[in-house]
């Protein structure tokens, strides 16, 4: 490549690590800190079947919040160890390779990429190579083709299974998962609420500004809800249970309204009895349990993207230094789109 990094034996890499757990509230600089570490790019310093990479893009996803509480509940994600570098879904460029399957300049995708400018990675944990000539922008691999898109696909295609004409409600449909779930439901001929103008949904409302969820759902779902993909939880989930139809399906993908609370302070749902009378099926899921379908998802979603049937909206931050700010933006009522960081230009 002839890049400046390739000529160096050692580089200084900025990296984010967890210094203290945040049991409640949005993590701050008291919990997450930036430091500089030396990374050797010398060939002798790279183990066999490893690559040295520079990070290009980092995906900022709500699940990250659940890895920083220091407790084992809710999503039951393994917690980062104190002083450990944060890991996130990301895209990197190979600088030097000690594996015959990868060459200098390859663009790679990894599910657990250090939130750092440079790192050494074992090749067996790289998810796939990306083709810059594919016509698919790199951020799409972190959104429509990444965790959010896969979660939306599992929620709608595999678990929700709405029929054409079904009334589908997607909460937080302006966020990373919701915007794809709604578009997928529309492609199945469903009536979908939220983000009407941009993504072709049938109606829209902002749950952060509504005084009464119950009154809002009465307005937007006069004929009830057949499938609900829940990304919010709490009071929204309770309100939905007053408007479900018989044999409705509720798919629990996330509960962003509850992530920054300890479990004793989270909102309880008082009307679960409605599920019995309406014979409602409620199911939570983790995408790790559906990885056997990832190849099917990738083929289908790439086709939709190239045909212009699925669109993405990204909120882009710049530089690894912006990690803390970008993580906090997930919990802002003004956030619309999939949050990503461009660490370096491709």
Automatic annotation (TrEMBL):
Q: Which organism is it from?
A: Citrus sinensis
Q: Which domain of life is it from?
A: Eukaryota
Q: What is this protein called?
A: PKS ER domain-containing protein
